[in-house]
Amino acid sequence: MLVVRIRGQECPRHTFSANIRDVPLLEIRNLTKVFPHGESALGAKAGGEVRAVDNVSLDIHPGETLGLVGESGSGKSTLGRLILRLIEPTAGSIRFDGRDLLAASRSEMRRLRRDLQIIFQDPFASLDPRYRVEDIIAEPLIIHGTASNDAVRARVLELLRAVGLDESALRRYPHEFSGGQRQRIGIARALALRPKFIVCDEPVSALDVSVGAQIVNLLAQLQRDFGLTYLFISHSMPVVRYLSTRIAVMYRGQIVEVGDTDQITQRPAHPYTRSLLEATPELAI
């Protein structure tokens, strides 16, 4: 079993046995997002614009984790939100499970969102402080009407156990939990509707080293248990290498290199990829 280091912690790298079909679950073609000056925090000059995502094309296959790595401001999180239509693209196309997401009506998109979920970066800001944990996890089930009233609580308990929490969490509020526990609650909420695809938007960057490693291991276990497909966004090459089947490298809004994890980390073709690896002592070439 391969061993890598996550911020100095030595961990076995997971390998996935999922059968990855030839037909992609997600097909992204020429996706572009342009923010006029004043809409983006990326520093456009006065009167100019920012191409936060620039002509990106990617395929993500069922059962795999595509790691998306790059420095802060490279467009990674914007790409994740475009895929989910949390923000609308300027140009391009997105097909999910054969369906054109950009052509979907509001009602169609609402149904599709059962299969498309996100785990946010900040576990402190992503949970409503006024809601108890039971209500936070039950909310998607109630909104989408996927479980009867009697079944909702049982499903919430099932999800809590799946992420390593127990019944004692049900009636408590987010402020009563640690950062790692809050992220587990956020993961349980993302799993509530049994999605096929989850965008993991830097889910461990706000956590301590040991807690982050536990969350990464949890995500790997959940992928095996529930047959999930991930887009895992991070600026950390060791974390991406640990979890990913393939890696896409993003620089200034563009994908500059895509390949199998071993190829990207051992035989990178692009100078920017090499610079990312050289900045990580454990993976230096």
List keywords for this structure.
33% helix, 9 helices, disordered N terminus, 6-stranded mixed sheet, single chain, alpha/beta, 4-stranded antiparallel sheet, 285 residues
| Overall body shape | globular
Helix content: 25-40%
Q: Beta-strand level of the residues, as a percent range?
A: 25-35%
Name the average pLDDT: 88
Radius of gyration: 19 Å
Distance between the termini: 20 Å
Number of strands: 12
Structural class: alpha/beta
Largest sheet: 6 strands, mixed
- Strand order in the sheet with the most strands: 8-9-10-5-11-12
Give me the strand/helix succession.
EEEEEHEEHEHHHEHEHEEHH
Total number of helical segments? 9
What would your notes on this structure say?
The protein is built from nine helices and twelve strands. The protein has a six-stranded mixed beta sheet with strand order 8-9-10-5-11-12, sandwiched between helices. The protein has a four-stranded antiparallel beta sheet with strand order 4-3-6-7, covered by helices on one side. A two-stranded antiparallel ribbon has the order 1-2. It is globular. A hairpin with a 2-residue loop joins β6 and β7. The longest helix has 18 residues. By secondary structure, it is of the alpha/beta class.
